[in-house]
């Protein structure tokens, strides 16, 4: 599914984010930037040791913030690492932190003149964020950003499975 927002395109796709050829892909990282499971582990395995070497130099990333490294051997030139919140009960500021993770990633992309970026569904795996709510927050944040900033031409959500893709599609239809 694709929609146009000003001069930018917002697209949803089912697939493997490590195979994306956008300028940057976003990694759902942990605060220590230490690699891990899920998207984080897949990106580090596919991108090779150069990504981890830069992560070690950076040292860490607070929840809701973002940092950038090389893409290593990935097709993407850069990896933007962001740390989403662990979902507890929805009353611990999780929504604001999740929004911030997306917003900080986009802002960092803009400052680096990145014109295409691919996101996973941040915090919806091991961090337990409910999919419908996470999708709504992610999509609203991206749409608001693209309405105000014309420098990023393509934002693609690369969603690992069909269920996640369907939920993101449902939430996007509610917003347009």
Describe this structure in words.
The structure is a single chain. By secondary structure, the chain is of the alpha/beta class. It has a single domain (2-169), classed as Leucine Aminopeptidase, subunit E, domain 1. Helices cover 40% and strands 20% of the residues. The protein contains five helices and seven strands, in the order E-E-E-H-H-E-E-H-E-H-E-H. The chain has helices at 38-47, 49-58, 94-111, 131-148, 162-175, and strands at residues 2-5, 8-14, 24-28, 66-70, 78-82, 116-119, 154-159. The chain has a seven-stranded mixed β-sheet with strand order 1-2-7-6-3-5-4, sandwiched between helices. Helix 3 packs parallel to helix 4 (131-148) and helix 4 (131-148) packs across helix 5. The longest helix is centred in the middle third of the chain and has 18 residues, at 94-111. It is globular and about 40 Å long. The two termini are 12 Å apart. 47% of the residues are buried. The mean pLDDT is 97.
Short descriptors:
176 residues, alpha/beta, Leucine Aminopeptidase, subunit E, domain 1
Rg, rounded, reads: 15 Å
Q: Into which percent range does the helicity of residues fall?
A: 25-40%
- CATH topology label: Leucine Aminopeptidase, subunit E, domain 1
CATH class: Alpha Beta
Q: How would you describe the shape?
A: globular
* Order of helical and strand elements: EEEHHEEHEHEH
